[in-house]
Amino acid sequence: MSAIRAVTDPDGFAALKDQYTATGHTGANDRNNALNRVTWIVIRKGGTIRDVTIGDCVELQHAIGEHQTNGFHGKHLFYQLLAGLGAFGPEAPARLKTVMLPGQLTPAALVDRQGIACTAIRDLLVDYLTERAVDVDYTTLEDMARSLAGLFWRDLEKHHPGIDSLRLETDTITAWKERVGMVRDRHGIPVRPRVNAHTIFSWVRAFYQDLARWAAEEPARWGPWVAPCPVRDSDTDHSKNRARRKAAMDQRTRTLLPALPALVKAIEHQLKDAQTCLATGRETPAGAPFTTPAGETLLRRAGVSSRVYADDPATGRRRDLTVEEERAFWAWAIVEVLRHTGMRIEEALELTHHSFVAYQLPTTGEIVPMLQVAPSKLDQERLLLVSPELGEVLTAIIHRVRRGQQAMPLVAAYDTLERLWSAPMPFLFQRRCGPEDRPIPRNYIYTCLNDARATSGLTGPANEQLRYTPHDFRRIFVTDAIRSGLPPHIAARICGHRTVDTTLGYAAIYPEDVINHHRSFIARRRSLRPSEEYREPTAQEWQDFLAHFELRKVALGVCARDFGTPCVHEHASDAPSYGPIPSRCPAWKRSTRTCSTDSRRPRNKAGSAKSPRSRPVSPRPSRSSPRCATSPRSTPLSTSACPTSVPPPAGSPPIQQRSDTSPTSATRPTTPSSSTSPPLLSVVDTGRDANFPATWASSDKISWDRWVSF
Fold first, then answer.
1. Residue 280 neighbours by CB under 8 Å, 6+ apart
2. % of the chain with per-residue pLDDT over 90
3. In sequence order, what are the residues at sequence separation of 6 or more whose Cβ sits closer than 8 angstroms to the Cβ of residue 244?
């Protein structure tokens, strides 16, 4: 290869070597690999290094990938050297992956991936997705295209060839719903029920409803496609699935939360052992044995490399101690960041060196470190307080990424969901991968967590191995914060939730936590109020409270005020506070009603369709009769017509008859007693006797449906 380079373009290859040294690389293997790949392009395409294009680099990578499967073909250092020399111009991407990885597809490309046969329906779906693309993100647009074009219309074409109308028969829709409800393999055999079947029904229902609504504005464009919606509103209901998912998440949180301290301790121990093992391996000569902190005996492998390799005589496999230490560090870093902040995994991976903000408190002038979280799900930025523990973790991450340099490397991250590349930024979660710096992807985080889980050996109640995901730490953070006394609305702001209900959905609150926090709240509130406001009630006050409570509970519905509506006799200047309470027993007659006020709810005539039953209505009292005949407070409470059925609560003072010596009755004016007034109750019958429906349902004052609800 050196002879070919000396003949074709010696000046160009010499400039590549200088560019390699200027970028800080020192490995001879990486340099020779980059020079060899550029040499292959020059041999195959001809010309000099300045004639190499980006398409030539992509073509070379595809050709190498067909023959190499060890991952070495993924190194793109040769492209960076060519871009640094200016061979591709100033507008060239910083990384070759920017060109090789797919970007966002157009709505037409998303629909064409499903292979729809009907051209008219295909064009309709393309137009519909183009209209909706303005309001939704790319992930949602891709899900809509897969549901409408693939799982809906393409499935109908497979089972009903030649179909070309959105007006579907009942049998066709029923069969399609059954097929969508199951996940099938490539042979069409059902494998398991589909969890998100309601989401597909929602997209189809929204599709039909949008066409009907848009047809009113553009009838020529959308009117011909308006058809009855084949999906009912009940098909999109997923309340049961949501409840099951909530119960499963709460149970998972209750299982993982108690084991979190053990996991943190195990990860810290694993990181210390990996760092000690790597440092011992570097100091050990090639071929010499050394002992790890776990008591294992390893043999240092010979060879020149920036990594430390060792052979395990017990298993016969080669171990990369550098990779083990790196995974242990990032597992520790991601667990600490997530459990202290409750961030989403995409938000944590998007943290940069510019995310640190110094906030000065307006009251004390104290400088508080804050962490600015970039918008992710709801496009809302927020600031998080950096605790001392979190600050220590972030400092360790920055120190590792810098590697002794003054500034952090600038890398471009690829969003796998939105299919977009970010600008080169100093991301905190980045690592050295061969000759280049790369942002840490989400799958690498899962790999680190799985290795840490396997090393810790934590098991659950059923002796199963516990598995932590990045989102589990978010649920644990919310649950622990609310249990510790943090108000839910503050937890919602910290987590970036739009509503408090979403935050409460993350929290797995125990019943005893609710009771303990409520009792603490009551005690704290009482401590802030004057002590005289919380004196012990007297015997007479307790007696009055129990009598009033029982009377209102039993006689609910006697007066309109018990239904939350005003009553006429409550506005009378001489009316007592309680008013007459008629007895339920058969001795009481409707002809001796004490209150003749009209109900605000209109009464139904006898025999009408709205009447509960066809029966004659009792004659109403004349207008000359008194509006409300009540007895004064001094009237003794009679119990002759209604025996006692339920005794007063145990430990409470006996309920006695009210007298005019009550402190509340001395200042109230009274009215003369009426001859038609029924006896009042002192000890209330809380049971319903056999004659209750016949006596109370026939009253023109209270309708039967109210007593059924009672």
1. 290, 291, 292
2. 31
3. none
CA distances from 233 to 182, 193, 202, 206, 670 (A): 20, 20, 9, 10, 59
Instruction: Please give the structure tokens belonging to residue 46.
Output: 């001809």
Assigned token pair, 510: 């125990």
Distance of CA 129 to the CA centre of its chain: 26
Classify the C-alpha dihedral 32-38-43-44 as positive or negative. Answer: positive
Q: Chain-wide mean pLDDT for the chain? A: 77
Q: Find out whether 422 and 430 touch, Cβ atoms under 8 Å.
A: no
What is the rounded CA–CA span in Å between residue 185 and residue 183? Answer: 7
Residue located via tokens 């059902």: 190
Q: Tell me the C-alpha distance between 262 and 248, whole Å.
A: 22
pLDDT for the residue 512: 66
- pLDDT reported for residue 486: 86
Q: Give the residues across from 17 on adjacent strands.
A: none
Q: Of the candidates 334, 327, 317, 332, which has an alpha carbon nearest to the alpha carbon of residue 278?
A: 327
Burial 386-399 (b: 16+ CB within 10 A, else e): beeebeebbeebee
Helical residues (DSSP H) of 216-320, grouped into ranges: 219-222, 239-256, 260-283
DSSP tally for the chain: helices H, then strands E: 26, 13
Per-residue pLDDT, 378 = 62
Q: Which tens digit of pLDDT belongs to each residue from 311-325?
A: 988 888 899 999 999
Calculated CA dihedral for residues 266, 269, 271, 272, nearest 10 degrees: 180
pLDDT digits over 12-28, tens only? 888 888 888 887 776 67
- Facing residues of 356 across strands? 371
Query: How far apart are alpha carbons 623 and 354 in whole angstroms?
Result: 82
- Flag whether pLDDT at 269 surpasses 60: yes
- Counted residue by residue, the chain has a size of 710
pLDDT of residue 335: 95
DSSP-derived letter for residue 153 is: I
Please determine, for residue 622, whether its predicted confidence score (pLDDT) is greater than 60: no
- Whether the per-residue pLDDT at 106 is higher than 90: the answer is yes
DSSP assignment of 381-440: -EEEE--HHHHHHHHHHHHHHHTT-SSPPPB--EETTTTEEPPPB-BSSEEEETTEEEEP
What local confidence, expressed as pLDDT, does residue 71 receive? 53
> What's the number of CA atoms in the CB half-sphere (13 Å) around residue 278?
19
Residue 310, phi-psi category: left (phi > 0), alpha (psi -120 to 50), beta (remainder): beta
How far apart are alpha carbons 195 and 255 in whole angstroms? 23
Mean pLDDT of 89-115: 87
Backbone angles phi, psi at 392, to 5 degrees: -65, -40
Residue 537: Cβ within 10 Å count? 10
State the amino acid at position 431 in one-letter form: R
**CA nearest 148: which of 225, 262, 241, 57?**
225
Q: Using CA atoms, how far apart are residues 257 and 466, in angstroms rounded to an integer?
A: 11
Q: Which residues contact 287 (CB under 8 A, 6 or more apart)?
A: 299, 300, 301, 302
pLDDT tens for each residue of 425-471: 999 999 988 778 889 999 999 999 998 888 888 888 888 889 899 99
Q: What three-state secondary structure class fits 369? A: strand
Q: In this model, does residue 74 exceed pLDDT 70? A: no
Residue 682 pLDDT > 80: no
Radius of gyration of the chain (CA): 39
pLDDT tens digits for 572-608? 334 344 444 444 444 433 333 444 434 344 444 444 4
Residue 464 CA to residue 461 CA, distance in Å, equals 7
3-class state of residue 480 by DSSP: helix
